[in-house]
Amino acid sequence: MSAVWLHVGQCGNQIGQEWWRIITEGAGHSCEADRYPFLSRDGKLGAVCVDSEPKVLRKAQKLVKHGCFRESNLIVGQEGRGSNWAYGYYGPPNEGERGLLQRTMESFRKETERRDCYSGTVLFHSLSGGTGAGLGARLCEEIREAYPVGHILSVSVAPHQAGESPLQHYNTLLCLAALQRSADGVLLFHNDEALSRVLSLQSRSPSSLSSPQAQASLSSMNSHIASCLAGLLYPVHNLTTPRISLGLEPWELLRSVSPVPATKFLHTTQAHTRSTVLWDSLAASTLQMLPRHSPSGNPHYSSAVLAVARGDQCNSFLSSLDPVLRRLRHGHRCAAWNPFPIDYWTDPQDVVSPSPSSRSLTVCSNHSSVTDLLQRVGERAHDMFQARAYLHWYHRYGCEDQDFLQAFDTLRTVTEEYRAGEE
Questions:
Q1: How far apart are CA 134 and CA 157, in angstroms?
Q2: What pTM was estimated for this model as a whole?
Q3: What is the pLDDT of residues 143-167, one digit of tens each?
Q4: Could you tell me which of 241, 232, 377 has the C-alpha nearest to residue 310?
Q5: Helical residues (DSSP H) of 258-337, grouped into ranges
Q6: Which of 49, 278, 324, 381 has the greatest number of C-beta atoms within 10 Å?
Q7: pLDDT, tens digit, for every residue of 342-393?
Q8: What is the DSSP code string of 200-241?
Q9: What own/partner pairs with CB < 8 Å and gap ≥ 24 does 353-357 have?
Q10: Who's near 392: CB < 8 A, 6+ residues apart?
């Protein structure tokens, strides 16, 4: 086992619980080699869960009783972080040596020592919450400093555009800037896109005929994100030795889709079916969910793409490889400077929806549509900053104006890097 899985805040832990449900249930249909990357030698999951409030982690306590989680790896605080990045990042003034940050890093250190060969961390969190954004950013920086050779892959969830909190633009700004400095890659999910996808899937289900006004739940959105992660990060045949999986998927993902260190924000789409639908049709379905143009009408592009085909029991994906890759290359407008912009993995089992005839195609791309988020967050946060709105809430916990100015500059630089990549 090479990775430590770190879940921070309400969002990070809720998605994490869905992730571990898929992994443990999917592992029941797979071989022992596929379970190895997620377990320590004593059979417990290699996860550390932290939140500033106990409510969300009560479900994780049930997994402790079942012997799945290590109780010492559940780090719980007694007061929230008020949706304030600064409060999450710096913590309460009187927290001391037994604060949330210190206890988390201690549990994290012990978990890395249980690894056969620690290769990196997968961090689950949101961009808008006080704990997820603030403490998540701080942990990312602390881990980078303590383990400079290890990879950091962040699974980050962006808030709804319509608004979840008056502070969400500040929090997202500061967190994205911190991830750009410390993480090797960011699997970026958007609440609006997850909601749209779940509603689309529900509209096609037979139950929608009897309940046409059904609404997507937060749980179903979390399940969709966890399903995309399982499609990407669960062991695949390409990277598994004859005897055991080494858990290389997160790090090979970074190698495949982050050819330029300055551009590390990744977009993920997924299509799955329980019938023998052609792989080319699944590829077309993933492209329907891909943002094609910016609000100003400029076309987006991808610098690199990874396609993961699961349920390929008779090598049908390899038989239709050329048309599938051609469709993906055209749909993603792959950058001309990358001579090999598309990579692919295959596996005969579909952990996303385990059944004899199911198959799924998960596509991860380094896609320039992230600039839409960066510009929108930067503009809205800048307007608030110019009006001095809510800044006293951040100054109270140690955040300074210079932190905001540096974050604005970081997001502008990333936007320029993506634009330069197209040219």
A1: 13
A2: 0.94
A3: 999 999 999 999 999 999 877 789 9
A4: 232
A5: 279-288, 316-319, 321-332
A6: 49
A7: 999 999 988 887 777 789 999 999 999 999 999 999 999 999 999 999 999 9
A8: HHHHHSGGGGT-TT----HHHHHHHHHHHHHHHHS--GGGB-
A9: 353/272, 353/274, 354/25, 354/26, 354/29, 355/274, 357/274, 357/275, 357/276, 357/311
A10: none
Question: How far lies 335's CA from each of 255, 305, 340, 377, 423, in Å?
Answer: 17, 10, 10, 26, 9
Sheet architecture: strand order including 74-76: 74-76, 47-51, 3-8, 120-126, 151-158, 185-190, 265-273, 359-367, 302-310, 342-347
Burial of 112 (0-12, 13-18, 19+ CB in 10 A): buried
Distances (CA, A) of 89 to 67, 83, 124: 32, 11, 16
Provide long-range contacts, Cβ within 8 A and 24+ apart, for 284-287. 284/327, 284/331, 285/361, 286/328, 286/361, 286/362, 286/363, 287/327, 287/328, 287/331, 287/332
Q: Residue 295: what residue type? A: P
Say which residues have a Cβ less than 8 Å from residue 393's Cβ, sequence separation at least 6: 82, 84, 86, 167
Nearest CA-CA partner of 85 in 177, 188, 7: 177
Tokens linked to 340: 């090999």
Residue 272 tokens read as 């799955």
Residues 6+ apart with CB under 8 A from 190: 157, 158, 373
Task: Find out whether 357 and 274 touch, Cβ atoms under 8 Å.
Answer: yes
3-state secondary structure of 7: strand
Which residues fall within 8 angstroms of residue 312, CB to CB, at 6 or more apart? 318, 346, 347, 348, 359
Q: How many helices (H) and strands (E) does the chain have?
A: 16, 10
